[in-house]
Every structure is written in structure tokens, then in C-alpha cells.
Amino acid sequence: MLIRIRSNVGVWRVENLDEATATVHDVMEGIKATRPNIQFENPLSKDPGCQIPLAEGTPLVQQFNLGHGSMIHCRVDPTTCAEADPSNSSSLMKRSIAKDGSIQMIQTSSDNNENGFRQGMMALRDIKMSWTLNDFIAMNSQYEFKIQRQEEAICKGVSLDTASVADFQNYMRRFNFSRQRCGYLYGTFLNDNGDDDEKTSTKNKVKVEAIYEPPQDVDEDGGFALLEDPREEEVEQLASLLGLRKVGWVIGHPPREDGFVLSANEVITAAELQLEAAGGLGEDTPFVTVTVSVGDDGNVSVEAFQVSKQCMTMVAEEALEMGPDPGFCVVNDTFTAIQEGKPSKTVSNNFFLTVVPIEQHESKLFCVAEFPRANREFDTAVSKQDLKNQLSKAGKAGWTFQDLLSDFQLLLYLSQFLDMATDLPPICESVVDSESKPLNEGYKLIIA
């Protein structure tokens, strides 16, 4: 079993874990095997905010339902990670500064390992002395992928809140769709009947209620680089209080040539997000990727996709990389991709994409979606005056205070001042069910 660890200095992986017996301690030992001096600032956790720590001796599968390819999280002291691999004196860790300013550790090697079973691997005799043909075929098959197109997406449909998507595309119009931007979609996973009943195991539809745009910058190629988000934990907690979760992401981008749908970076990121939503490779997920762009005629197009299960597997194994042509994923030298019976060094991104049908709805949870969005470059910082302006509409044009409060962006702003543990829960309960749980008058005085 393979477990991936997302830290503040990059994504690591620990391999060859026994699915039946592996514990959190085994994962920590796997990390320390290559980084013996590592110091954790936050322990291994199930959530990105590191608020759900994993007890060191706890079984991974039985206790936390983690499987092959699952992602867990931690924060470490970056200065303690740049260590040599003790199992290979020629393998070193080099510190690199990414475009967003984050520190990443990149493994380098002083030799080419020409005698290795595969690029970056030991020679067969160093793995074990005696090999049968069946042993070799079984070993080799672990690193081969016969590329096959997945005909249907796991997600059978996504319904987008009209106001949220309109606001996102209007912001893209402000710079004429000349650069990329992304956001996370929050909503619910539904079953075939359109219900989010937790008793139903099969969820194959998505209903999007709101969009959150994390801090991001424009890179030199016009793409986006996500920055560290100090409010990531608050967003997740607020969504949970409202009965929502991260169900997808949206990418706004300039017009692209015919046939170019998603870049290699976007395909790999989509696979990472689907893996995170599914908790690894064991479960299916309807987590969706939505694109927003503009055509030559000026009309905006909105499309939805998922990457295939095979793409998720290859990304979990780190078999796919970005290359010079954004329309193709490069296959890592350790692996082999077979297309039409022949090895191929690249795979067209479109082979990994499945189309998801789109429909629209007007959110019944959020009555308005007019409050200014956070983290937007061309907008002024959200202020208390924005809060006052929105709530001052109460009693006018049929708006009630409750209606105007039912705005995801406004509630996110309030989370900066109100306590997430005591104040926000009753407010969110009132937003979700205003008839049976009306808002206490005291909170109206505090908010206004």
C-alpha cells in the first residue's frame, strides 16, 4: 500500500506498507527513513488544517479508512527536510523555491543508475538474487500502464448555482479572460434520486452551492499559482456547519485552440483533488472539474469533466509529469505507458478526460450571492462597510435580514470576528433551516 503525505514543503510518499497491519507509526518511520532529522510542526493529520491528528499507533485502514493512494497532511520545519537518503549515498535532497514562494525538496542523484531494473531503481540482483520469468513479469507489470479511455464519468451530472458561476465569469471578463483563475466548489454529493442521504453509499451527482477563490497569483505563463491560504481551515469549518463539502473546482482560462481542453498541470491537479475527495483509490468520487472560458464570438462556455480512474492511479504512483507541451502529460522514466501496442513517452490529456453533463439551479440555501469575494486582485479588501451595505437592504424590496445573511461570502467574512465554535453554529443552523431555527435577536444586534 502507498500513502501520500502533503506537507508545507511538497508531497511525499511512503510505499510498501502492509494494508492489513500498517499504522501511523509505520508512515512516520517511512518518512524518517529518507529524512532522519525531520521535525514536525503539526502531526500527521487527516485534514489539510491538521486539526484531526492521527494517533501514532493507530491502524490506517481499520481506524481511518485510508487505502492505497490516500493523502494525509502535516506541517514540518523546512530546514530539517533537506537530508540525504541513507539507503543511497548518491541520492540527495535539494531545496528549491517554487513560483509561489514555497519551499520544495527535490530528490537528485549523482549517478544515472544505468544498471537499474528501471530508471531510478536498483538492479534486479540488488532487489533479490533469484528471479523466475513470472517474478519478472509481475514486477515489470507494476510499472506498465496500458492507456485506455474511460467512456463514462463516475459523476453523472453537476448542477451549478447560477449566481455563483455568473459572478465568477463576470470577474474573468474584467481582464478579458486574459489570465487563468481557479476556485473551489462547495456543495453536496447526491445519489441518483438527487438526495444527499448519508445512508446511501453511491453518490454520483454534484450540486454546487458556492465558490471560494483561494489566494493565488498569476505566473509568467498566464496560469495561476496557489498561495498558502491562512483561512483554509475556516472555509472548511464554515462549509461543514452549512452541511457542505468541497465537491469540485473551477478553472477560468483564456480561449484555447480546438482540442485543447485541460493542461497537463490541470489534469494532474484534478487527479490529486479526486484522490483526496475519494480518500485514495479504493472508492469512486463524483468530484468534478468545471471550466469557464470565452469563445471567439464573445459567448462564455461552461463545461465539466472528470479525469479517469487510470489517471488517478498514475498520479498516485507519480507516473505522470508536466512537460514542454501542455496538451500532453509526460510519463516518468520509471514507468511505461502503452498506447496502441507501443510504448509512449507522453499521453494526450484528452485520453484521461470524461465529460460530465451540466445543469443550473438557483440556490435555496443562499438567498443572495452579492457580497464581495475575498482574495480578488482587482477588488478592494472586504470591509465592515460592505457588511453594513448588504444588511441595510433589510426591509426593502422584500428582503429580510435572514435573506441577506444567507450569503456564503458574507458568512465567511463574519467568521473573522465571530467564534467558530460558539457563534457561527447557531447562525449557520438558522441559514440552513430558518423556519424551525430562527436567528436569535441578540445575534442580529451583534452582526449589524
| Integer-rounded radius of gyration | 24 Å
Strand order of the largest sheet: 21-15-14-13-9-10-8-22
Whole-number average pLDDT?
86
Number of strands: 22
Query: Which class best fits the helix and strand makeup?
Result: alpha+beta
The gross shape turns out to be globular
- N-end to C-end Cα span: 53 Å
User: How would a crystallographer describe the biggest sheet?
Assistant: 8 strands, mixed
How much strand? Answer: 25-35%
Low-confidence segments, given as residue ranges, are 84-99, 108-112
Give me the number of helical elements: 13
Give the helix level as a range of percent: 10-25%
What are the main properties of this structure?
448 residues, alpha+beta, eight-stranded mixed sheet, four-stranded mixed sheet, 13 helices, 25% helix, globular
Structure characterization notes:
The protein is α+β, with helices and mostly antiparallel strands and 448 residues long. The chain is 25% helix and 26% strand. The strands form 6 sheets. Strands 21-15-14-13-9-10-8-22 form an 8-stranded mixed sheet. A 4-stranded mixed sheet has the order 2-1-4-3, with helices on both faces. A 3-stranded mixed sheet has the order 7-18-19, with no helix packed on it. A hairpin with a 5-residue loop joins strand 5 (91-97) and strand 6 (103-109). It is globular.
